[in-house]
Design goal:
single chain; 5-stranded mixed beta sheet; alpha/beta; Aminopeptidase; 6-stranded mixed beta sheet; 555 residues; globular; 48% helix; 3 domains
Length: 555
């Protein structure tokens, strides 16, 4: 009897404890948790919410009472276990061959000194990176995003920041280093490509946490942009300098985080600016001011003065924290591949948003909902096509479904399910292909022997006529050159999947000829692999069908 009483008492105590935790949350969140049937999930959600309350709830009064705002300064890449800079190993090199970390550290040191002087801020990072920021060393170790999350959580950081420099991929750089306009041979993974670089990537931008519905991360990015533009610095064309990003692990697993990208070290003009100490100081000052101003308008505490933190009137921190919590709950369910609950919470979040104030947040939420719903539709369609035996179409739909949720860690479980199905479809198609193929002896193909119908790479460079480009590609006789040139100029050039237009000068064109040398179709591309088995071009591949063949008579 006594045993039963003790057990009953424990149940009552636990029930009261759970009710007490629910009472601390807004009604909308308490309802979500009460509807969750899985106890393990309830516990995880409660822990996540408690963690956010410990970080952000009543932050303005806590700072007034002497508590510091902790900022985790994430090391930008660094030295790997093999002793090499990550930037060097992954091609993140400047035009002059310096790794990204060289410039990142110079800017980070200036920002660190500003943050360190503020009496209401505590900067936390790995000890070796702090030493580098203090100027005690010029090297520091690379850590994973997962380690960043754990260290930031342990430090109870309000915000995670990281100073980076942008860099176009090696495949879009002329000669492997600089981002220069024009047609160039570029390299990626040891393979040569012909690339038409039409846009110079330059200027600053900020990657902000797409899943931060409080608007804090977006506001930091917006304020950085406004400040740097006021100094007549150029903003990058990618979404005009504020890019909602969900590729990085801590963007999924940490509430508030930003990555500053202060220019393109692959652009000669940007690198010249970044090497200027005054320019570095200007960037750091803008980042510092943007962080402080955003803390003031999001959490209601102004820490820009040195005498006393000031409570900011007219700010509703509780409302901003509610939005942040809802977005984190949605991410939690989506990461568990429970997309029905995830999209339900996203819908609730949309109702809480103010269209006048939260346009960027609303856009991100709607984008997430669309990606989930559309990918699920394509997945279901792929399964239906598979059931009907239409494997190629099923695989196409599955590939489109995967592309909608690619890269973002929050979709990892969802993507894993889709990829397993995609792999199964691929294996079925390959098995059928092997079974239906006549097993003739393998033939050795000579790439230097082309046919007239092998697609021709026609490369029109600046100040070059189409006729000159076609001659360079084929080195054909005058009659054929005249015929192909005339038909090329009259062709409707295919651009992308559906758009057609007339030839517009400089560019890379894939021209398909008939057996009689007539132009069958023309397609313009930005990049093409220099593959002698697939294309002919006398200038780049030395394999034109029409070029005169000279016999080597020497022994």
């Amino acid at each position: 009897m006594k045993k039963i009483t003790v057990v009953s008492l424990l149940i009552v105590i636990l029930t009261c404890a759970v009710s007490f935790v629910y009472a601390q949350q807004a009604d909308i969140i308490a309802t979500i948790i009460s509807e969750e049937q899985d106890k393990e999930r309830v516990d995880q959600l409660q822990q996540m919410l408690q963690f956010m309350d410990n970080l952000y709830d009543n932050l303005h009064n806590r700072v007034k009472n002497g508590e510091k705002i902790v900022i985790f300064f994430d090391p930008a890449h660094g030295i790997d276990d093999d002793g090499k800079w990550e930037g060097e190993k992954t091609g993140r090199l400047s035009c002059t061959g310096l790794p990204e970390e060289h410039y990142s550290l110079l800017i980070s040191r200036k920002l660190y000194q500003l943050l360190k002087k503020n009496p209401y801020i505590q900067v936390v990072s790995t000890q070796d990176y702090i030493d580098a920021l203090e100027g005690k060393t010029d090297t520091y170790n690379n850590i994973t995003f997962r380690e960043t999350v754990e260290l930031a959580k342990n430090a109870k950081a309000v915000l995670v920041i990281s100073e980076h420099l942008n860099n176009t991929a090696s495949i879009f750089k002329a000669y492997g280093l600089a981002n220069v306009k024009g047609i160039h041979i570029t390299y990626s993974n040891g393979k040569a490509y012909l690339t038409h670089i039409r846009e110079e990537h330059k200027g600053f931008l900020t990657l902000y946490n797409k899943f931060d519905a409080s608007g804090f991360s977006y506001m930091v990015a917006s304020k950085v942009k406004a400040k740097l533009m006021a100094y007549n610095l150029r903003v990058n064309s990618w979404n005009y300098g504020t890019v909602a990003d969900d590729r990085f692990t801590y963007f999924v697993n940490y509430p508030i985080s930003v990555i500053f990208e202060s220019g393109f070290i692959s652009n000669p003009e940007d690198e010249a600016l970044l090497s200027n100490p005054e320019y570095q100081k200007l960037i750091a000052q803008s980042h510092y001011e943007a962080i402080l101003e955003t803390i003031a308008v999001t959490f209601g505490v102004d820490i820009s003065g040195f005498f006393s933190p000031r409570i900011v009137d007219g700010v509703n921190p509780a409302r901003n924290l509610l939005l942040l919590k809802l977005s984190r709950i949605a991410c939690y369910y989506i990461s568990k591949n429970d997309t029905d609950k995830g999209t339900h919470v996203l819908s609730l979040l949309l109702k809480e948003c103010d269209p006048a104030k939260d346009a960027a947040i609303i856009e991100n939420i709607q984008d997430m909902k669309y990606r989930i719903q559309r990918s699920k539709e394509l997945y279901a369609k792929a399964l239906a096509l598979k059931k009907k035996g239409k494997m190629q179409k099923a695989r196409y739909c599955m590939r489109k479904a995967i592309s909608l949720i690619s890269r973002s860690p929050v979709f990892y479980e969802m993507r894993k399910t889709y990829r397993a199905e995609y792999k199964g479809l691929k294996e079925i198609i390959e098995q059928k292909s092997v079974a239906s193929t006549y097993s003739a002896p393998d033939r050795v193909v000579n790439p230097l022997v082309s046919r007239i119908t092998t697609p021709v790479l026609v490369v029109i460079e600046q100040h070059m006529t189409p006729q000159e480009a076609i001659y360079n590609a084929l080195q054909c006789d005058e009659a054929l050159l005249k015929k192909i040139s005339s038909q090329f100029m009259q062709a409707h050039i295919k651009v992308g999947k559906k758009r057609f237009e007339k030839p517009q000068g400089e560019g890379i064109y894939i021209v398909q000829l008939t057996a009689k040398g007539n132009v069958k179709n023309v397609k313009r591309v930005a990049i093409v692999k220099l593959d002698p088995y697939k294309y002919q071009n006398q200038m780049y591949l030395k394999n034109s069908y029409c070029a005169p063949k000279e016999r080597n008579k020497s022994l």
